[in-house]
Every structure is written in structure tokens, then in C-alpha cells.
Amino acid sequence: MEMSQIRYVLAAARHLNFTKAAAECNVSQPALTKGVKALEDELGAPVFHREGRRILLSDFGRSMLPHLQHIVDEAAATQVLAQNFRLLEKVPLRLGVMSTIGHIRLARFLAQFEKNHSGLELSVSEQSPAELKNNLSEGDIDAAVMTLTDEIADTFRTHPLYDERYVVVFPPEHRLGRLNAVTLDALSGENYVDRLSCEMREMVMAVCADKEVELYARFRSEREDWVQAMVLAGIGFAFMPEYSVTLPGLIQRPLVEPAVERRIALVTVPGRKFSPAMDALMRAANGFAWPG
């Protein structure tokens, strides 16, 4: 069954005349008649009754028309989707972002990207590192923005975007806010707001234990907004990536001795071919002026 044969049958059904149908399809009448007959032979029953120059739809043909029309409609829709995909129009791009990444700088990049690719449909979902790794592997997202670790580098294809240091965040008027930078030792015994969702939390806690720095967690939360709100309310200080601090009024100072930083990367699955939309995102990431 060929698409041209289906179109011949539909045109003949509209005109009930092979000559007019051939003119609509821009083919000769013998070619159209031959195509209609070939389709009837394949279906095993006549679509038309021939009465001299006149043709009429058979009952079988009348029952087949909706199905044949559906085939043509689906083919046309597929061609539109393929064209849109090539032109990056209405092409879905699914991006997962680690929940601890500050949204302001990333939003600037995504806003510029969408401005330059207005027909592209971008969806962004906030996920944990474990969810990002699973959804990347399963193909549920096209790329992830997350902290680059040795495990990620060994498993996925990575494209570093920027580095950011960890800072200490204080409420207004905190005595340590007068310092230009804060050492870990200076924080021993201070009230502390614990960021449970921090992917580097275990490493920071291990350093504190090694240096015998005692931290007293007054509040714990997996939500970045709650952590910042409780620091601002005076509950205690928090360790945060510098680009994640968004609440006005907070004091932030670099953490030194030891300094802690992380590298943020765009992560994809190795060996998986980029779609045109994903390829456009990679080019945009290469050309963007990331912080630092």
C-alpha cells in the first residue's frame, strides 16, 4: 500500500471521476487508474463500482475511506513534526537542574537561550542528584545541570560551566560578619542551620570532624529557601554555594582554611546522539558568559 495510491483513491472518491481525480493529483488518468486498481487488489475488494465513465463508491470503499483519510492525515502531521524538529520549532527540550543550584544566574542563561530559539519548548525540573542520574539514564530528561563529581565524570558526558566557592551566610549584625573571610575554626560552637540537600554536606561535615569543629544544628531543612529564611531570622549560620544566596539582607563571607568549592556542569549520556535542540543548547552554553 503506497501513499500515492491512497491519495488517488481519496481524490477519486471526492470527484467520482478518474479524469478529475488525475488532474488534482497531477498524474495521467491511466497512472491513477492503475494505482487505484493496485490498492483494490491489495485490500481484496473493489473500492469503486465502474459504470462506463461513471464511478461510484462501493460499500466496502465507503467503510475504508475514514481509515485511508486517517493515514494521510497522520502522514501530514508527521511531516510537520519533522519539519518543526529540523527548524527547532515546538521541539521539546527537557532539562533537569539540581535543587541546590542558584536559579538567578542559570535563569539568565536560559532566558537568553529561549530568546534566540523562540520556537523551542523548554521544560526545567528541579531534582535531587539521584533523580537526575536516574532520569538521564532512562531518557526522561535530555540533560542535567549539576555538581561535577568523580562519579558523574566516570559515568556521564560532562561539560563544565562554572566554578563557585562555598561561603558562610550570617544573619544581619552577626559578630563574624565583620570579617572579610571566615575560617572553619572560627565557626566552632556557633549555632548552625543544616542544609540537608547539599551534595557536599558529608564532605564538609567530615572536614569539621577532622578539625574538631563543633557545630550545633538549630534547624535542618532540605529546602534552600527555608535555610536562608531561618538564617535571616537569626537562628544560626549556614554553608552555601555563593550563587545560591538569593535572600536580601543576608551577610555572606568566603569560607577559608579550608576553602571549599564546587564545579557545575551540563551533564548528558555518553553515546546518545544530540537532538537539534540539545545541540543548540550545547552551543549556547559554550558561548555564554558564565560567572567566574
From TrEMBL:
Gene3D superfamilies: Periplasmic binding protein-like II (3.40.190.10), Winged helix-like DNA-binding domain superfamily/Winged helix DNA-binding domain (1.10.10.10). GO terms for molecular function: DNA binding; DNA-binding transcription factor activity. Pfam families: HTH_1, LysR_substrate. Residues 1-58 form the HTH lysR-type domain. One of its GO terms (cellular component) is protein-DNA complex. PROSITE patterns: HTH_LYSR. Keywords: DNA-binding, Transcription, Transcription regulation. InterPro entries: LysR_HTH_N, LysR_subst-bd, WH-like_DNA-bd_sf, WH_DNA-bd_sf. Belongs to the LysR transcriptional regulatory family. This is DNA-binding transcriptional LysR family regulator. It comes from Jannaschia seohaensis.
